[in-house]
Design goal:
3-stranded mixed sheet; L-arginine/glycine Amidinotransferase, Chain A; globular; 5 helices; 275 residues
Amino acid sequence: MTTIDFGPRLVGTPTGKLRVAALMKPDATFEHATPLSGEPGAVYTRALEQHEILRKTLVYFGVETIVLEPRGEDPYETAIADAAVVFEDGAMIMRPSAMSRRAQADRLESEFARLDVPIAGHIAAPGLFDGGDVLLIGGTAFVGVGSRGNAIGRSGFTAVAQAHGLRVKEVALAADVSSLRSVASAVANDTVVIAPDKVDVRAFDGFRTIQLERGEERAAGVLCLGEHHVIADVRYLTALGRMRKAGIVVEGIDLYDFEKVGVTASLLALALKRD
């Protein structure tokens, strides 16, 4: 049985150097995902190519990648970060809002058993909560309140996060926002890149914010490789320039077919180990 030696800590620091990440390959059903307003439909073959570029980029920067095979039951299965949230000593299994995705969380728990990743808790019925609505930064867990999840699910997550010593703050999302982490991401221990028109910026008082322009809101859904180092969709030129001007090293790659359906880089990888 293949196991990974995680040592004493999994995600020691939410913006620490990414060491191990799990990815879920897109399936042919990905073309059935509903495109965002004004966007064409996703193309499966191109999504596969872009996903492989993401994997190779992670490997180039020293990240061990675990690529899981999809079951083809839901086009959004590739957004693996919705299925779990990983703390320092274990992973909490989410209960996604979409019924078609709940089996994915169960399968991921089985993968964690194979990889020797401890389970820190579950969102139990009738609670609903998606990992993409959790943003960990420093000692705070920000919880998105929007179109997904319910109060019971958020309460269940809050109890586990507080037991791990985290302060929990709720963040109001605009009605058209699919997830908190598609419009806000931690890029350093004290810094958040954020789409101010889509999220209540006041919730992040005390943190440095890099605020992006209207029209490039999803550029905020970056994947953090470590302090001040991220992977982002290359097409958001103004946002990438703003992040770089703020001292963030940005690795721009093509993720357009995921962006078409609202799946940002931040949702395509589940961090299993960070320094």
